[in-house]
Design goal:
single chain; 110 residues; alpha/beta; five-stranded mixed barrel; globular
């Protein structure tokens, strides 16, 4: 029993912890954002109430806020694990380290 427990502890110790995607460096407030990637529903506590999605592109992540029409497109993309083309503008939330993209257009891609 002791040997089995030790073996399981050793295996668990070797498991790699998946690191969260790095936050993409924010551009100046108001500057354009134009990227293609995958979107996920935001599961954390946002730094501003508008943030509803995580956008993953090239090993990085950006928070997204979107109006109703684009929210429906983004929710479909998240549920279907589809790529999406995002156009928007960089914004800042109330906290100094809170940058996100306000989506102006979202389009599913292949």
């Amino acid at each position: 029993m002791f040997i089995a427990g030790a073996a399981l502890a050793g295996i668990a110790g070797c498991a790699q912890v998946k690191k969260p995607a790095a936050q993409l460096k924010a551009a100046a407030v108001g500057s354009r954002f134009d990227q293609v990637g995958r979107v996920r529903l935001y599961a954390g506590e946002p730094c501003t109430s508008q943030i509803m999605f995580d956008f993953h592109v090239a090993g990085s992540m950006v928070w997204l806020a979107a109006p109703r029409d684009e929210t429906e497109i983004l929710a479909d993309a998240a549920n279907e694990d589809r790529r999406v083309h995002i156009l928007g503008k960089w914004r800042r939330g109330g906290k100094s380290n809170c940058s996100y993209v306000e989506v102006t257009s979202a389009e599913l891609t292949r």
